[in-house]
Amino acid sequence: MVFPDFSPMMEFPDVSKTMEFPALHTNHSTTSHDTPHPKTSSVPQTHIIPAAHGHAFTVKKGEHFRIVDLYGEQVVDFAAWVQHTDLIEKLSMAYTRYHLAGATPAIGEYLWTNRDEPLLQVMADTVKVHDMTFMSCFPEMYAAAGLPKHRSCAENMAEVMAPYGLRGGHLGVTDPFNIFQNTPNYALKPLGSSKPGDYIEFKALRDCICAASCCPYDLKGFNGGKITDVAVVTGIPAAVG
Ligand SMILES: [Zn+2]
Fold first, then answer.
1. What's the CA gap between 115 and 92, in Å, rounded?
2. Which residue intervals of the chain are DSSP H helices?
3. Domain assignment of residue 228, given as a range
């Protein structure tokens, strides 16, 4: 199928209006295959993830970052690995559900790793509707639907994490935190709820590598029936969040 071309000149909602801080620097990257590079600057940087693609990025301990839905109703699969653990210690939705005694993190609560340590703290959340029960969409799912070439979150994650050392292709990815995915109580219905400019903001408690996939699932009305670009904003001043 054909996905919309990403153009650096395309119009998208003014992210800075939702950011609460000035001088937002936008990095209009046109590829999802960036060479890994640490973002240590305290100046906020925005990376636009083209519709149906993925992006990996590093954040430092104490750094705040946001995942922004630019056009609304777009799910973003998210995962994170602790730096310098050979990708062994990672975000775990099972541990997180245990600590939350549920599957809905409130502002101020944490996402936990498979070593039972808090890794990310939710600092702000304009939606408060996410999912931590479902896996990423995966290639076999689309192949079974007659779409063997369809992009998937699992492959997006594998693609962007391979330069960081993730092995096993899409079988090597971990269970995601499905940001903006409205699937309460295991119901898989198109219940989009995020609006243009909505975001969730995290604070990293340790240095980590994050991966985000703009979910390509365009069947049955999911993602508003149309896959759209999302943004990752790193280097947000802690005092703002
Ligand atoms: Zn997906």
1. 9
2. 93-100, 139-144, 153-161
3. 24-30+37-236
